[in-house]
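Below is how a single chain appears once it has passed through the pipeline. First comes the sequence as given, then the structure the pipeline wrote out for it. We keep one example in the README because the format questions we get most often are answered faster by looking than by reading.
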Amino acid sequence: MSRETNPAPLALLAAIESIARAAGDLIMGVYGTGFEVRAKSDASPVTEADERAEALIVRALRALTPAWPVVAEEAAARGEAPASAARFWLVDPLDGTREFVTRNGEFTVNIALIEDGLPTLGVVHVPAQDRLYAGAVGLGAWCVESGARRALHCRAAPDAGPTLATSRSHGDEAALAQWLQGRAVGARVAAGSSLKFGLVAAGLADLYPRLGRTMEWDTAAGHAVLRAAGGEVVDLQGRVLRYGKPGYENPHFVAHGLSGV
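Resulting structure:
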């Protein structure tokens, strides 16, 4: 594909779904082995699956859209991320490495397109569960599970109170309790990695507050799917979460469905 040709959104999203599935197949090939777990400079874990999946995704994205920079987690950890641009890819090749290491199946492949600071297209693939979330602003969002595809739509929170999605591995109960003061909660559901965005996009949860450190590649794909399903992600001052920031670190945020925060 030439540098001057921009793929149509639907064709582009189909290509990203295929790339994410190929990376997921590679990850699952490592999943059942006695893989080594190493610590990066920030003490977070990394495995052969992270690195091999990232190499596959970056190579495929550069072939698909040669003019668009690719910012990927492991390259960024090595100080090799390109400067962001008006349009660029954000990649987390294996979001939820802790879930991968503990083999609970709640890890994902995240690929997002950022345009003018906002995620406009994204895929979140859950290879251990044969589930894939995809969406693009203006096209809608959907989930493909075991070959069956269904549309995703955020819901208005039920009368009993919103369902809260919380992190499986990164919970800060003290900070969450403070944020929840004065808020009614109808139920809670815990999930790992980017699956919490999928819960809100599917109308299975209404709020996902994240009151801890995250990076842009952790959230961009899920944010894109959620936006396509009618939801949004905002910081604690109510401003829409933006991408391409220096250092690629997110503020604390809340992902929400139709009822808002």
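The chain has seven helices and 14 strands.

See the next section for the split statistics.
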